[in-house]
Backbone:
């Protein structure tokens, strides 16, 4: 089985995705990731997939014959470039401090060959935050979520429980509300929370923080 | 024309995307975004699309009839939740400071109804950075790139010129190398660079920073 990434330039009209996925299905490609970058009159569509029998050259040849396709070629995968993602969300002041710790620690691991990106959204309000927590489970390459705030509970706690069931790990700052109870790990210092988040997902880290289930720092 | 987002649970096997996009094509859905969250034996596939004549109920009904589909329903769009993205890349110390400024400023705009996320990758090396810069043009919802380092040039500069041609705006820290020459805006203070990045993409900002083309601060 071989992994590939291709990028195609196609006319921006309904049905193009159907044409592209029809070719991929004919080659029994297992599609792992799709990205659409819409433009007018042309859009870029990017696919990551694995092949068992077919060659990527054969896939590209068939795609280039589709009406509306103006270009198709191989490209490096996002996984190779952006790697694992840690998402930090909550109030701006605390999200910023967690991000500082996480970015500094990710730098140390990325220099040794890891690829860890830190993504953040400063966001307030129970409903908006709960929706953002639930959405992380649908985002690609997300390994861990850090909740950085002073008070989180209610619907956010319910969302944390849901995403943990899908396998996502959650670190919470030590804060008011029921979110810390629902998290894998609770950390008081936001910079340390960021550092620990990176240690938890890095293959280059020397030990597994998440074994210390439900510990508080 | 109406915008919709749906999430489906499907068997993890080749050909499922083809089946799903075939239904969407039959309803003349214009697909804007696709996300695959792979699991075993079931994967989640998420679509954002617009419809002109069909209803989302009709689309969901046809999708539920496909072999291998165990669930399909409407869901809020990522655009509503995560909104516009600013990507910060470069050396850890400087990426952290830019992120601090951008997160604090995004907080102020998000409270007033904007949705701006700050995504970062601490990364060094001409080749890796150039590849990451080129990849931003293929990532969804990215509005602006901030390059935070002390020395960037060569292949990175070539990549900056390429992504600017696709419409992406680029802010560079004032640094050694040829990247500042290729950027839209050059800023010396990393915190201010982050703040300005958010001001440049926020609809809630009072003026357009990018009009000050090629200015240095």
Residues:
């Amino acid at each position: 089985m071989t992994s590939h990434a291709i990028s195609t330039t196609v006319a921006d009209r309904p049905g193009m995705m159907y044409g592209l996925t029809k070719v991929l299905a004919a080659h029994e490609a297992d599609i792992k990731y799709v990205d659409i970058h819409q433009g007018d009159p042309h859009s870029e569509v990017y696919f990551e997939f694995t092949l068992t029998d077919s060659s990527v050259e054969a896939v590209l040849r068939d795609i280039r014959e589709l009406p509306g396709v103006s270009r198709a070629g191989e490209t490096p995968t996002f996984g190779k470039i952006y790697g694992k993602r840690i998402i930090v969300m909550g109030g701006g002041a605390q999200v910023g401090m967690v991000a500082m710790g996480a970015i500094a620690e990710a730098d140390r691991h990325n220099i040794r060959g890891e690829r860890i990106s830190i993504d953040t959204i400063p966001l307030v309000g129970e409903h908006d935050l709960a929706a953002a927590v639930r959405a992380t489970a649908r985002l690609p390459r997300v390994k861990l979520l850090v909740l950085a705030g002073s008070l989180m509970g209610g619907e956010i706690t319910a969302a944390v429980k849901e995403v943990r069931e899908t396998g996502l790990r959650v670190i919470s700052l030590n804060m008011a509300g029921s979110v810390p109870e629902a998290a894998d790990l609770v950390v008081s210092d936001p910079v340390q929370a960021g550092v620990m988040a990176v240690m938890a997902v890095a293959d280059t880290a020397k030990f597994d923080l998440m074994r210390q289930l439900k510990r508080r720092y």
About this structure: The radius of gyration of chain B is 20 Å. The helical segments of chain B are 16-26, 56-64, 78-81, 92-111, 126-136, 155-165, 179-182, 190-201.
